[in-house]
Amino acid sequence: MVVLGGGKGVGQMLGLGRKGGVGQILAAVAAALVLRLFSGPGPALLPEDDGDGESDDVEAQNTGKSPPVTLRWSNITCSLSDKSSKAVRFLLKDLSGEAEPGRLLAIMGPSGSGKTTLLNVLAGQIVASPRLHISGLLEVNGRPISNRSFKFAYVRQEDLFFSQLTVRETLSLAAELQLQEISSVEERDEYVNKLLFKIGLVSCADSRVGDAKVRGISGGEKKRLSLACELIASPPVIFADEPTTGRSICSKYRAMGLGGLGLGSLDAFQAEKVMETLRQLAQDGHTVICSIHQPRGSVYAKFDDIVLLTEGALVYAGPAHDEPLAYFSKFGFV
Ligand SMILES: Nc1ncnc2c1ncn2[C@@H]1O[C@H](COP(=O)(O)OP(=O)(O)OP(=O)(O)O)[C@@H](O)[C@H]1O
């Protein structure tokens, strides 16, 4: 297999090897951007450290492999008060549930029902403030969560890439930044090749990512590239916010405040491929949680479990497939 760019260093890939004031400033800005881009999401915030000082990350570091993670949440409530603190709006109401390794859990519900809010609370992406109050219990493998107790990937609705890099270069750059233990170029190229195969990106490996102006890889391929970048750190848990939404923002346009470029849903084929990738990751032992709005039947068929919300409240939590139909028919909703 021809490897293009896999062996380049970060500076070379970004074309920032020249000396001089402007070049150095650009290099520093780009390096900061790249680090921000490929560093994991912020730490989980809810609830506080269990205080035993131990972390499953330590185990992961010692064995080089992250242990499977079962996430359990109980009585999660999230409320927002207005400026005068007189009116309180409940975004999540007393939610409980569980996500297990080897299973794909979909958080479903109408627009505004709280899917993204729940996903963000579970991933520790919501910062409590005087106006935003979060309560409840979140457990990892039966223990109250600590701030660094599990590694996770968070695939956002927007995909953010350097549009001029190829898929392979993007992954190689992410691996160079994240996998300090891989020092040789050959090892890194081999790692990237395996990842390309695992995520199904071999056929477009040497295509430019592209942006709104220069046609590059498809929306579905961008989504899977996002996933691949997040998988480099081998996280046992994967959160994906609306993975069938193909929204792409190139760094240049984001800097110009043009974040909405390329908005839209993936077509049926791409949406199914992205969900199939998530399903396979679940089958590999990851705990996969995604939020999704109105999935097609073929996409729904890939879910193992669902959490169904309406106006922040739980309607159903349990196995997917035909079980929800049987559950609702008990209440006369056939
Ligand atoms: N920080 C916030 N400030 C004000 N309102 C918020 C905030 N976060 C969430 N909301 C509100 O909470 C509700 C749930 O939002 P959320 O994004 O979780 O819904 P969703 O089910 O993911 O919707 P969609 O499918 O449209 O993305 C919405 O009405 C939203 O406007």
Automatic annotation (TrEMBL):
Residues 71-333 form the ABC transporter domain. InterPro entries: AAA+_ATPase (IPR003593), ABC_transporter-like_ATP-bd (IPR003439), ABC_transporter-like_CS (IPR017871), ABCG_transporters (IPR050352), P-loop_NTPase (IPR027417). Residues 47-59 have a biased composition (Acidic residues). It is a multi-pass membrane protein. Keywords: ATP-binding, Membrane, Nucleotide-binding, Transmembrane, Transmembrane helix, Transport. Its main location: membrane. The keyword Transport applies. The keyword S-adenosyl-L-methionine does not apply. SMART domains: AAA. It is found in: Membrane. One of its GO terms (molecular function) is ATPase-coupled transmembrane transporter activity. Residues 45-68 are annotated as: Disordered. GO terms for cellular component: membrane. PANTHER family: ABC TRANSPORTER G FAMILY (PTHR48041:SF41), ABC TRANSPORTER G FAMILY MEMBER 28 (PTHR48041). This is ABC-2 type transporter family protein. It comes from Actinidia rufa.
